């Protein structure tokens, strides 16, 4: 029996909140990736790791906030806790791989394509692994073409976001890029949901797992608290708090002397002509 699927049971509340979470995670991740390119080498892994966790947490939270509005008429929906949080780990790890590639190789050419592809596949993997964590009295089926379109959207969004992280420097430009990224991630999510169809079994066996209400508290409190903490770190750069410059210092290399600045006097040297000494006759008593 075909199940009636409703992805907007709470109206526009869940899509808007989900979009906001995607934008928040994307904005923090882009700012962290941008700062990793203008700080010392020792600080770069920390900024890239923070950006990976921010983007992964934002996308994961966006997915499950949107899923709060997902219902199937005639059957309750439960979630497997282990698989649900495994999807968070997959998102952070795969997004991190893509961000580290771009952070160390640059946001251009092969590095950008590779990083965007891995990051996009991570976003898509998180989505469909989260969908696999659902337990209901039915079978989930997907349209292959629509699934392929959703994966392509995820890869394009990830590539565009990584390019923006490497090119955009201004705060307003970063905000604009995060809004576009959030829109693309939300579009990927609902494209993937459009590929879904549910066939109900019609049995009386209860579904196992946690209900959406029991997952709501850790889903919102945990990742949201982390995103707020990441926002505080981005706003108050540790390098600025410690009073150190945020520019990349010149690393000493063996065999290359350091550049020294020589101050030149503004006064020009005046060369006086050399006096010629006239040889006079000796005034010794013999010559008088």
TrEMBL record:
The keyword Signal does not apply. The keyword Aminoacyl-tRNA synthetase does not apply. Residues 10-199 form the MHYT domain. The chain crosses the membrane at residues 12-34, 46-70, 82-104, 111-130, 142-164, 171-195, 215-236. InterPro entries: MHYT_dom. Coiled coil: none annotated. Keywords: Membrane, Transmembrane, Transmembrane helix. GO terms for cellular component: membrane. This is Membrane protein. It comes from Streptomyces tuirus.
């Amino acid at each position: 029996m075909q199940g009636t699927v409703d992805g907007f049971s709470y109206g526009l509340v869940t899509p808007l909140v989900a979009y906001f979470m995607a934008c928040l995670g994307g904005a923090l991740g882009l700012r962290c990736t941008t700062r990793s390119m203008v700080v010392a080498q020792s600080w770069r892994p920390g900024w890239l790791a923070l950006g990976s966790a921010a983007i992964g947490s934002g996308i994961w939270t966006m997915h499950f906030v949107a899923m709060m509005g997902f219902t199937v008429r005639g059957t309750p929906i439960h979630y497997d806790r282990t698989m649900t949080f495994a999807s968070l780990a997959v998102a952070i790890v795969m997004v991190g791989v893509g961000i580290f590639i771009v952070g160390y190789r640059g946001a251009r050419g092969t590095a950008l394509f590779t990083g965007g592809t891995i990051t996009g596949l991570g976003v898509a993997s998180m989505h469909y692994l989260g969908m696999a964590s659902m337990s209901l009295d039915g079978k989930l089926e997907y349209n292959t073409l629509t699934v392929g379109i959703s994966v392509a959207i995820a890869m394009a969004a990830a590539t565009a976001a990584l390019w923006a992280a490497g090119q955009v420097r201004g705060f307003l430009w970063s905000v604009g890029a995060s809004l576009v990224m959030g829109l693309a991630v939300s579009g990927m999510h609902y494209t993937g949901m459009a590929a879904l169809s549910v066939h109900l079994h019609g049995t009386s066996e209860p579904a196992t797992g946690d209900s959406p209400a029991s997952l709501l508290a850790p889903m919102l409190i945990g990742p949201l608290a982390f995103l707020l903490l990441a926002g505080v770190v981005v706003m108050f750069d540790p390098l600025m708090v410690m009073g150190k410059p945020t520019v990349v210092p010149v690393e000493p290399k063996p065999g290359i002397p350091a550049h020294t600045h020589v101050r030149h006097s503004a006064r020009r040297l005046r060369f006086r002509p050399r006096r010629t000494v006239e040889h006079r006759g000796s005034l010794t008593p013999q010559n008088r």
